[in-house]
Amino acid sequence: MFRVDCTCGAYYDVPDRLAGRRVKCKRCGGPIAVAQSEGKSAAPVGVDESGRPSWMPPLVDETGVPKELSPAEEQGPPSMGPGNYWFDCVEGLFFIANRQSLMRFLVMSVIVAFEPLLFLAGPFGLPGIVIIRGWVCCFLFNTVQEASAGERDLPEITFTDGMLADVLAPLVKFIVTWLIVLSPAWAYAHVTGHTLIAMLGDRDPIVLFLVSVGVFFWPIVVLVAAVGNTYSVLRFDFLATAVFRTFLPYLGLLFITFGPLVVVVLGVVFLPKAVEHPLALAMVAEIVQLYIAIVAMRAIGLYYPHFKDRFAWSWG
After folding, report:
1. Domain-embedded: residue 79
2. 203 — phi, psi (to 5°)?
3. How confident is the model at residue 237 (pLDDT cuts 50, 70, 90)?
4. How far apart are CA 189 and CA 210, in angstroms?
5. What is the pLDDT of residue 26?
6. Residue 107: inside a domain, yes or no?
7. In whole numbers, what is the pLDDT of the chain averaged over residues?
8. Burial level of 213, CB count in 10 A (0-12/13-18/19+)?
C-alpha cells in the first residue's frame, strides 16, 4: 500500500498496482501523484517533495481508495485552443440557464444579500461579514477550479471543512492576491514616506502606473492561486510570459473581469441619492456583483484550458 497526500488535506492508502500513476481525490477532485516505490510519500500535484507548507490545513484521513485516473485524465485536459474561448465566455453569461447552477446561485444570492443588513449592526455584524466574504471567496476560487477543469456547472456550496478551510483561508488567499499585485505601488509609497491611499488621492503618476500594472496582472495571479500553487504566484517571469503570449485574449479577459464591475460600483455610488430604499438597492447590488464575479471567475478559469499550451508552466 502507498500513502498519498492531497493539497486539500486528505490522505489515502492506495494499492501497489497504482504505483507511478495518478488518482483523483474523493474530497476535492484534484489529481494526486502516486510514488514509484514503496516507502516514499507521493508529492501532490503542484507541490514539490520538500513537504507540505505550514499554512495548509491538517491532513484528514479519507476512507476508501480514490478513483484511478484514465490515461487521458492523467495527461490532463487537452488545450482547447483559442477558437472557442469567447464562445465559452459568452455561454458563461447564461450559467443560470442550468438548473443546478441556478439553484446554487440563488443560495449564494440569499447569503450575500444579508451583508448590507450586517453593516447596520456596526461592530457586532463584523463576524458575520467576515464569514460571508470568506465563504464567497471560497465559492469563487472553486468556480475558477471547476472552469479550468472544463466543468460547466457552478461548484457545490459546502461548509464541511470548518471555519479555517472554508472561510478564513479563501478570504486570506483573496486578500493576498491583491497584496501581491499592489506590492510595488505600496513599496514605492513607503519609500517616499507616504501612504498608498494618500498618493492615490493625490493622483501621483508613478503610483497610478504601478497600481494599473497590478490590476492588469490580477486575473492571472488569481488563476495561479486557484489552480496552481502558492509558490507559482511569486514567479513573475512565468506570469508575464503567460500574459504576453496571450496578450489580446488577456485584454478581453480584463474587460470581462473589471468592465461590468466598474458600472455596478458607479451605480451604487450615485443611485442611492435618487432612490427611496437604499438598503434594498444595496442588497440587489450585492447579488449583481456576485453574478458578475461568477462570470469573471469562470472566464479566468476557462483561460487556462484554452491557452495552457502558451503558458510557461502547466499543472496538467
Report:
1. no
2. 55, 45
3. confident
4. 10
5. 67
6. yes
7. 78
8. middle
